[in-house]
Design a protein that fits this description.
- The protein has twelve helices and 21 strands.
- By secondary structure, the protein is α/β, with parallel strands linked by helices.
- The strands form three sheets. Strands 4, 14, 15, 16, 17, 18, 19, 20 and 21 form a nine-stranded mixed beta sheet that branches.
- Strand 7, helix 5 and strand 8 form a beta-alpha-beta unit.
- The relative contact order is 0.16.
- Bound molecules: pyridoxal-5'-phosphate.
- The site of pyridoxal-5'-phosphate (PLP) has 18 residues, from helix 10.
Amino acid sequence: MDHFEYRDGELFCEEVRIADLAAEFGTPLWVYSQNALLSNLREIQIAFAEAEPVICYSVKANSNLSILKLMNEAGSSFDVVSGGELYRVQQAGGDTTRVAFAGVGKTDAEIRFGLESNILMFNVESEAELDAIAAVAGDMGVVAPVALRLNPNIDAKTHAKTTTGKKGNKFGIDIERASELAAKVLADGRLSLVGIHMHLGSPILTTEPYAMAVKKGVEIVNEFRAAGHDTNWINLGGGFGINYKQNEAPPAKAFADVIVPAIREAGCRLALEPGRFICGNAGVLISSVTFTKREGGKLFVIQDAAMNDLVRPAMYDAFHRIWPVKPAVAAPDDFEAEIPGCEPVDVVGPVCESGDVLAKARWLPETSRGDLICTFSAGAYGTTMSSNYNSRPRGAEVMVSGGTHRIIRRRETYEDLVANEIIES
Ligand code: PLP
């Protein structure tokens, strides 16, 4: 469980008791392990070291400024998909000259912001975007570095809502059109074709899609080079899977083994955009049980974290391990199996939606009002996808390092909820 473990019958993050954090900051509470964040990044840095990649931590996974600052200090760059994310990178002290800027709908203002920030490259997702970037760059009198985001039509076998590299998804340019658009770039002095980009989906639990993608990528780059482009970068995006259940995800080295040799042989520069791999298992969501009830033949555990905090189960049918912070039964290896001393419960939140379920028919030991519950693997696409739905203030975020902790985002208040709203007086 990566820096989160049960000791003497209760859950710790590194050397800090989770129950102490909940007592100090209340629930729902996000707790991150700094050493997990750093060691997950380091795992990728080491696995891919031979290719000397630029690792662009994917800001969308978790954009807290303290996490961005940590990533920057540990040698990571950033992948952004909006002007707001680029602003966050700046605020965290990040080096914007190594930023990759993706997204299907960049506005002129965002393009200008990217060019002013001297970013490494735009991952361009359509011909119309290419035209827009050329126009803004021309206006500014600069040359825009572009990488064509190609849709390689590879099935990464992820959830329908998180697959991005198959024909018919909204992302990228059909791979068959790559040469035509490259020729357009070559003829335009306002643009420079520095590379190609592919992001296949997320989370990906096998290496084959990457092996196929890098093969296709190298073929295309060689075509571009033969056509006179100075094209070096192959950006394979993110998507490396993590262990949400047990040990279902390959280590970073397995992905590197299918990617690095092809990149080196082609003499290309490698960029990667991992998000989930770095922060997914470095964060948990702590909640407390408000009520339990038996209705309709089921036991419901109603706790104070909801779909507005962590939307992944409702949105993607995602599986998160859930277990009490001070359990009466030791945490199992297999959270999907029947567990002696437990019974199947639906873990739900207080939001007025039937879909507000964190886990369905999950074997849990008996819990009662006030008990603390941990939802694991919540560090990625937790806070960044959270909302104030049902006018629920978002919880605090705490970073643990060894035996110390610090608050990195305070809990929202009711005043925060209405701070930007204007009523006639
Ligand atoms: N790069 C792009 C273009 C993405 O769309 C995403 C996720 O949606 C990522 C990187 C990060 O993916 P992950 O967090 O699974 O590594």
